[in-house]
Amino acid sequence: MLSLLRRITQEVTAAESLPAALDIIVRRVRRSMRAEVCSIYLVDSNTSEYILMATRGLNAEMAGSVSLKSDEGLVSLVGRRAEPVNLEDAHIHPSFHYLSGTGEERYRSFLGVPIIHHRQVLGVLVVQHEDKRRFDEGEEAFLITLSAQLAGVIAHAEATGAIASLSPNADPVGSDFRYKGVPGSSGVAIGRGVVVFPPADLDVIPDRTTTDFDQEIEDFYQALDAVRQDIRKASNRISKHLSDDEKALFDVYLKILDDNSIAGEVVKKIKAGNWAQGALRQVIKAHIAQFDRMDDPYLRERASDLRDLGRRILSHLQEKAPNLVERFSEPSIIVGEELTASMLGEIPIDKIKGLVSVMGSGNSHVAILARAMGIPTVMGALDLPYAQLDKVNLIVDGYSGKIFSHPSEALTENYQQIVDEERLLEEEYEALKDLPCETLDAHRLSLYVNTGLSADIARSLDRGAEGIGLYRTEVPFMVRDRFPTEAEQVKIYRLQLEGFAPAPVTVRTLDIGGDKSLPYFPINEANPFLGWRGIRVTLDHLEIFMAQIRAMIKASADLHNLKIMLPMISNVAEVEEALALIRRGYAEVKEEGYNVKMPRVGVMIEVPAAVYQAKELASLVDFLSVGSNDLTQYLLAVDRNNPRVADLYNCFHPAVLRALLSIVDQVKDEGVGLSVCGEMAGDPMGAILLMAMGYDVLSMSSTSLPKVKAVIRNISMTQAKHMLDEVMKLPHAEAVTQTMTRLMRHANIERLIRPAKTNVN
C-alpha cells in the first residue's frame, strides 16, 4: 500500500499540468481500487460550486462543464462535513442529486472523501460501483490517505493560478495572483523579484527566461565536458584501490553523460526559452521521477546517481554564472525557498526592497533581521511557486502576509498609496527623535534597542534609542569560520559600549543551539529547542564562556556601562554557577590592571520554569529581561520557525499575557530592573500592555522604536491600564487583538501604527 501511494504521489507531483495530474489520480485510483468510477470535483473559489474536473468511468466529455452547487448533492455534503461519506446505495440518500449527461445513474455505491489543505476544502475525491455494496474500511483509509497527500499539489496549482477560476465560461485571470504567508516585517514593497538559492542544489533552481540560446547551450556543453574530466580524473586517482565492478560505476557515469537523450532534452528546453540551469533541473528531476517509480530496487537506486551527476553539472554551470551581487542592477524583492542571514549578507542593503521566504515564520531570525533593517517581509509562503518568480513584478504586503505576482495597474496604484502614507508616517516619527518616551500623564518608559551588528549603532542612535537592551554576541561568532579570540571579542564589544556610552549596554552571553548554529561547532539534535543551547552550552565549555566574560569586562574599561545577560536560564543553580564565574573573570581582569567595575548581571526569562522561579532568580541578580519570542514558543509548544503552525504562535495568547503579568507580580518588591527584549516589545499593541503591566524598559529593533514612541506619547497610563484590564478577561488571542485594535482606534492612535489603506486587498 505504501509503495503504491508513493508511486501515485510521485507521478502526480511530476505532472506538467493540473489536468494531467488530475487524470493520473483518477486513472490510478480507479485501477488500484478496482472501482468502476473515480472522479475529482474541485471547488470554484468564485462560486463555491463543485466542478467535475476529471473522471474515469463517467462521461469524460462532461469534465469542466458540469457542477454542483455548494448545498447540492452528495459531493457538496462531503465538502460541508469535511469528512468521508460512504454509502451502500447513494440513490436513496436525501442529498443525492443526479448530474445529467454524466452517466452516473447506473452507479449505486458511493465513497467520497474531502481534499483538505490548511483547513480549507479544495475538492472531493469520489469512487463508485454499480452494485450495492459499502466500501470497506481499508478502501476508505486508502482514499483518505491519498487525498491528504494530493491536497498540497492541488493547493499549489490554485496558488499559481492554474485553477484561479474553474467556471466553464470564466475569463482567464492573468494578474494579481495571490499567495498567503506569515507577516515577517511590516511595510509594503513593490518591485521585481530576484530568486536566490544555495549553490549546487538542483531542487531550488528557478526557471528564468533567456534569449541567448547559443550561449546557454555552449555553457551547458562546457559543463558536461568538465564533469567528464572530473570523473575520469577521479577514476584514475583511485582505480588501484577498486575492483573491476567498482570501477565500472565510473563508466556508468560517463555513459549517462554521453547519452544524447538527456543532453538533447536539456538543449530542447533551452531553445524553448529556459536558461541552462533551469533546463537541467527540469530534465534531471523528470528522469529521477521515472527511476523512483520503478519496482526494481537496483534501478530505483540509479536515481541517486543521476541526481549526483546533475549537481556536478550544475556546479560547473554556476561557476560561470554572475555572482549574487552582479545580479542586482536595481533594488529588488529577494525571493527564496529558505532565506538565511548569510544570503542577505551577500546583497547590498540598498538593493533589497522586500523579502519573501517559503520556509520560516514571523519570528525566524531572518524576519527579526528584516525588522531591524525595516525591510517589508513575508515568511512561510508554503504554496509559493518561487522558482517562477525571477524577474517577475511583485508586491509584498508585510502587514497581512500576502504576496502578489503580476500585479494589475489598479492593485499597484492601491499599494503605492500605502507606500506614500508610510513615508508620511516616517516623517512624523522623525520629529519625535529627541523627545522622551512619556505618556500623556507623565509616565516615563525607557526604549532600548536590540543589536547584533556594528551598523546597528548609528541607526539606533539616529532613532532616539536610550541604550542597548540586547546585544546578540552570537552574530560575530556566526560570521566567522572559527571562534573569535578574546582580543577580537574585546574590539567587537568595545564598539557597542563606546557607541552608546554612558547609556547602558546589555551584552548577552553566547546563545547558540536551537535554530542558531555555528558552522564550525555543529550541534545535531533530534529536538534542538529542548536541547543543548544557551547557558547550557557555555557552562559546559568554560573556555568559551570565560573568554567571552573577560572580553566583555575588558571592553567596558573606563566606560562602566556594561550589563551582562544570561540566556536560557531554567534553574537557580545555573545562575549561581555563572555568577561565580563572572566574579572570577572580573577579578582576573582587575588583576591585569584594567579600570573596570563589576558589571550588573541579569537573566533572561524565556522558559516556563524561569517564570515560576522569577522571585528566586530576582534575589540573585540585578535585572530580569523577558525574551518574549522563546517564552511564547515554550508556553504554547509551537516551533516559531515552523510555518505550518505559525498561526498558533501568538504573543497575545492569554497564557502568555498571564505569565508576563505573573513575573511583574512576583518581583515587584525585589528591587530589580524589569524589561522585555523580545519582538512583542516592538509591537505598539504589545508595548502598551507591557507598560501597563509594569515593565519599565522595552528593547526592540531600531525600526520599531519610533512607532512605539509615537503611540506611547499619545496615550495615558490610565488608558493603558484600562486596556490591560479589558484584555486580561479574554479567552482567545484573536479576541485580545481585536479588542486592542478597537480600543486603540477609539484612542486615536491606531493611525500611528500603519497606513489607513492597508485593507486594499
Automatic annotation (TrEMBL):
<keyword id="KW-0460">Magnesium</keyword>
<feature type="coiled-coil region">
    <location>
        <begin position="408"/>
        <end position="435"/>
    </location>
</feature>
<keyword id="KW-0598">Phosphotransferase system</keyword>
<keyword id="KW-0175">Coiled coil</keyword>
<keyword id="KW-0418">Kinase</keyword>
<keyword id="KW-0813">Transport</keyword>
<dbReference type="InterPro" id="IPR029016">
    <property type="entry name" value="GAF-like_dom_sf"/>
</dbReference>
<dbReference type="InterPro" id="IPR000121">
    <property type="entry name" value="PEP_util_C"/>
</dbReference>
<dbReference type="InterPro" id="IPR008731">
    <property type="entry name" value="PTS_EIN"/>
</dbReference>
<dbReference type="InterPro" id="IPR008279">
    <property type="entry name" value="PEP-util_enz_mobile_dom"/>
</dbReference>
<dbReference type="InterPro" id="IPR036618">
    <property type="entry name" value="PtsI_HPr-bd_sf"/>
</dbReference>
<dbReference type="Pfam" id="PF00391">
    <property type="entry name" value="PEP-utilizers"/>
</dbReference>
<feature type="domain" description="GAF">
    <location>
        <begin position="17"/>
        <end position="164"/>
    </location>
</feature>
<dbReference type="InterPro" id="IPR050499">
    <property type="entry name" value="PEP-utilizing_PTS_enzyme"/>
</dbReference>
<dbReference type="Pfam" id="PF01590">
    <property type="entry name" value="GAF"/>
</dbReference>
<dbReference type="Pfam" id="PF02896">
    <property type="entry name" value="PEP-utilizers_C"/>
</dbReference>
<dbReference type="InterPro" id="IPR006318">
    <property type="entry name" value="PTS_EI-like"/>
</dbReference>
<dbReference type="InterPro" id="IPR023151">
    <property type="entry name" value="PEP_util_CS"/>
</dbReference>
<protein>
    <recommendedName>
        <fullName>phosphoenolpyruvate--protein phosphotransferase</fullName>
        <ecNumber>2.7.3.9</ecNumber>
    </recommendedName>
</protein>
<keyword id="KW-0762">Sugar transport</keyword>
<dbReference type="InterPro" id="IPR015813">
    <property type="entry name" value="Pyrv/PenolPyrv_kinase-like_dom"/>
</dbReference>
<comment type="similarity">
    <text>Belongs to the PEP-utilizing enzyme family.</text>
</comment>
<keyword id="KW-0963">Cytoplasm</keyword>
<dbReference type="Pfam" id="PF05524">
    <property type="entry name" value="PEP-utilisers_N"/>
</dbReference>
<keyword id="KW-0479">Metal-binding</keyword>
<dbReference type="InterPro" id="IPR040442">
    <property type="entry name" value="Pyrv_kinase-like_dom_sf"/>
</dbReference>
<dbReference type="InterPro" id="IPR003018">
    <property type="entry name" value="GAF"/>
</dbReference>
<dbReference type="InterPro" id="IPR036637">
    <property type="entry name" value="Phosphohistidine_dom_sf"/>
</dbReference>
<keyword id="KW-0808">Transferase</keyword>
<dbReference type="GO" id="GO:0008965">
    <property type="term" value="F:phosphoenolpyruvate-protein phosphotransferase activity"/>
</dbReference>
